[in-house]
Amino acid sequence: DVERSQAKTDSLPVEHLPHPKNDPDSIEQDVLSKVSYTIGADPKALTTKQTYRGLAWTVRERLIDSFNKTQEYWKSKDPKFVYYLSAEFLMGRSLTNAVYNLGLEGEYGEAIRKLGYSLEDLQDQEQNASLGNGGLGRLAACFMDSIATTDLPGWGYGIRYKYGMFKQGLDKGFQSMAPDIWLSAGNPWEVYRPELAYRIGFYGEVKDGKWIPAESVNAVAYDNPIPGFGTNNVTNLRLFESQPVNEFNLDFFNEGNFDEATQEKRRAEDISAVLYPNDATDYGRELRLKQQVFFVSAAIQDVIARFKEQHSDFNELPNKAVFTMNDTHPTIAVAELMRLLIDQEGLDWDNAWAITTKTLAFTNHTVMPEALEKWPVKVMTKLLPRHMEIISKIDSIWKGSLADRVKAQIEAEPKAEAKAAASEESSLVPEDTEAGEDPVDAALAKYGIICENPWEKGVKLVNMAFMAVIGSKSTNGVAAIHSDIIKHTIFKDFYEIYPEKFQNKTNGVTPRRWLAYCNPGLRELITKTLGSNEWIKHLEKLSGLKQHAEDKELQAQWRAVKQENKQRLAKYIKANVGVDVPTNAMFDVQIKRIHEYKRQHLNMFSIINRYLEIKAASPEERKKFVPRVCVFGGKAASAYYMAKKMIRLVTAVGEVVNNDQEVGDLLKVVFLPDYNVSLAEVIIPAAELSHHISTAGTEGSGTSNMKFQMNGCLILGTMDGANVEIAQEIGKENMFVFGVDAEDVPRLREERKDFKDYDPRWVKVMDSLLAGQFGDAEYFQDLVDNVNDMTKSNDWFLLANDFADYLRAQKDVDELYKDQDEWTRRSILYTASSGFFSSDRCIDDYAREIWEVEPVAVPSS
Ligand code: H2P
Question: Which of 310, 581, 695, 762 is deepest in the core (most CB within 10 A)?
């Protein structure tokens, strides 16, 4: 077997391979060599792009060098690993991050200078790896950085989407979408592993307990080395590409049947083509499920294959591996791990179940119903017949135990009392059991994995989140308030049965990318003030800044850094959307996925109000306004009608306001298209005020709030998600807090039908929109109706309710901004209090309290 035979390397000096040298001259030589022999360019006439590519290949070599050593060392130690399963990894660019994390910024800086460039020039040539949508994917990327930095044996697993999610543009102010062709110039940050291919089956039938898929693809691996900071460890993000088993049908082709000749290839490639294909069609929905089982199966097969290299007893698996299911997308892992253990490894059901429930962990990131996936049993049975069998069995065992519990409860308490006690904590008997309905049936209908679709009678669904809770060893939320909410709402009864399974892990972000590298001015100032750069790895050390917060000299330097960052952003705005923005104005930002619960439209309504107030003011009064530049960024999901309208609202208002001579520099409104990691790295350091204004109880955590905080940007927010903990760290009085509390939301929603208490300013804003002051009144009609017309909708996210208090908070912001010393003192305090929100802290919490994985640092050789 030639393919499997080993090359005769015994006599070769493999130990003495020429490891790359890291002095500037060697790096420069290396770049020229890569440019010539890898890129094939003429080193005497290099373009910036070619120089970037050559340089990136040199960094890649250094990464791989440490990557190989790390993997080899880990193999020799055989520690327990965490595997992070995620449909999204929003990595952004790699160059700067890799050079700095490898600790080679000085050497590379000099080598690049000799070539006539700066690191910034070259990094701008790199395409963003936008394999994610928003916070969920960026959190996964931050976690990879922290897993590597804190020396944890841990890998990420996901999909190598060929076209990312989509590239967002603006077409006459409306969102336009195009494929994100991010791989067009090749990708030096990945290592293709054609020899690592796993077979993934779909459709077909189960005969005598054996699944015979009707369609199969290969999941082929690409490794993305992830360097830690201040360590030798370089870990791995393994992404899979879907490839056909049979690439090309020559017979069809020769018959002139060209389409069919490549049909299998196209169907296979669809699976790893785009993130979140539009799920408005049946094929789109099925494709999403295919994607999920595709990467989950490949990942688990891969882990089992490596496990078997060193072990033969599967009872050892939970001591060697733990999988985190990042939200519901990877939750098919419960059925897939069961299937592989039973069908391929020959374990019996009970043994497989015991292993599965010790090896999987589940993180819930949101209570939004659209993200709590429920797959129709019909779709699941067609696409994954064997999985469906397993799920049905899990469900029936679960329902059996649930029925026993309910019966026991009913027997323990007389009926009337059982009903009364059903209200809060201690009963599985559903509160809303209808008269005559059997309480056991009612409980099973409510908490079963397989349940009836409430909107379509007779249609059965698989509740993936319920399966995840039942099939894993722990379930956690991503901020204290969110973890509490899920225990009392979506997973209430599971919490009652398994209180010990539920945990909180407040999110964090990596201070490398989100402070040290994106804000070099502040990095230098912090390091100078603290006398060391240890804070980059131990973020809690930032608290040392507190004692300097009132130092006038530091405040002046702090402001100077912010001013420089504002200028950089102003330049970007001018270059990309053509608007001149004054850099003496307050830079006021809201950047995140566009969604009604995140309430970008609430922000817009307050901007319209500001505009109307400026217009109504006399020239003398206008001088009192604090000038603002309002910046928005974020994508609307392809099938999300209202979110697209929210984008148009920003651009429509911008078109009027930015061209109004009377308003001049007092107000500018810009929407920056194609918001991504690199753009965030420009916006966040420049921001002075940021909005985190979701209706209380709706945002899982938020992570941009943490990034803004680290960069000394003040926060205007509701008591929601991690805002609550940020307020605790900085002192609530230092944050601009407004809006109702989460516990009041259900009641207020009930009362909405009778809401009449509209603030007069709200009425004016709505009227201005409906009168067409910002163009096309008809287009904005349903956006307005949704929040303003209780006969048509009920303002579910409580905009009208929170509006007046929001304006009050905005006023506080303006007043404080006039006192620049106090503003800067708070800004310093924000940064100083951000230590808790490092993803290093968060990962450490996961490692100790859920994963039970310990650091294994590669020693320096
Ligand atoms: C989600 C939540 C955020 C959370 C993030 C990471 C799904 O991200 O909504 O509140 O911080 O996961 O846990 P996003 O909305 O940004 O896509």
Answer: 695
